[in-house]
Amino acid sequence: MSLHAASHDSPLPTPPFVPIPGMANVRDIGGYPTRGLHRQPNSSIRRGLIYRGGEPSRITPEGRTAFKALGIKKVYDIRTINEIGTEKDDTIPMAALRQPIVDLEGAERIHLNVFAEDGTIQNKTESVKNWEKLGKNTTERFIAKASEVLDNGSRLVPLFAHLAQPNPAPIYLHCTAGKDRTGTVIMLLFRLAGVPKHLVVEEYALTDLGLREETPKLVETLLKAPNLGLDEETVKQLVVAKKEYMSALCDVLDEKYGGAERYFRDVLKMSAGDVQAIRRALVVGKRPIFGEEENSARKVEIWPS
């Protein structure tokens, strides 16, 4: 199956996108080939197990019905506490993105903060300083923040332990937009399962389609955020899912950590049995629906001229 180029007015391709009214960028990560690692010509990522996307605070009643129908039992929220709630705080940059927690029927919410900052008073100034230190190179910014997720990977163990159980229930993984932190976690799972690097990159780039209606509003919010201090062009580059971002992160996983399996064993301290159990959960003996050449996250005009 190929993914058609999508304009602003055309529906998102399904799969991989899953329409949930009131939620953005929701997609099933299944259907990608796992060639290379398992040496099976018709193996792929299991569909209906892992969904990724943006935070659900604006979900509609119709969206709740659609979400429940997916059979999702656990919602893993990997935002910082700075991004959760209703009170605004002008002393930290990311508080501009705050949204309240919503309960989704039939699913347990599990909060796993993958950044070092915990939102306490003593960390607010440090958070701003760390953001300013990264400068304007957007690839370097992405790698710096994504590497922080990898360095704090032990906080993700409850998610991976769930997948290591026999017949794990479906899960939903989200940060705020479902782009970078969520993409980093999906990258780890894809690489562990043997999804080719270029398809990991392509899947990440689909976020530009998933957020095509949200991106202008996100840029406006970030430009107004106190203490962020970024110009419009830099913000625009930060909110898109450039292929080079994820390609560079895959290289970091290989060069710094020795690849996905060593990361799971050495950083997350997961046993060989658990790692194999995660692979068994992820990989199914079915023909991929997205192929080497067919799957292409086509360019979408985020900023119409």
Name a few traits of the molecule:
305 residues; alpha/beta; five-stranded mixed β-sheet; two-stranded antiparallel sheet; 12 helices; 7 strands; globular; disordered C terminus
How would you explain this protein's 3D organization?
This protein is an alpha/beta fold and 305 residues long. Helices cover 40% and strands 7% of the residues. The protein has 12 helices and 7 strands. Strands 1-3-6-4-5 form a 5-stranded mixed β-sheet, with helices on one face. The chain is globular. Mean pLDDT is 83; it is low at 119-125 and 294-305.
Task: Give me a quick take on this structure.
With 305 residues, this protein is α/β, with parallel strands linked by helices. The protein has helices spanning 61-69, 121-133, 138-151, 157-163, 180-193, 197-205, 207-210, 215-224, 232-239, 243-257, 260-267, 272-282; strands spanning 27-28, 44-45, 50-53, 74-77, 108-111, 171-174, 283-284.
Provide the β-strand percentage band.
5-15%
Major beta-sheet overview: 5 strands, mixed
The largest beta-sheet arranges its strands as: 1-3-6-4-5
Radius of gyration: 18 Å
Provide a count of the helices: 12
Number of strands: 7
Topology as a string of helices (H) and strands (E): EEEHEEHHHEHHHHHHHHE
- What class do helices, strands and sheet pairing give? alpha/beta
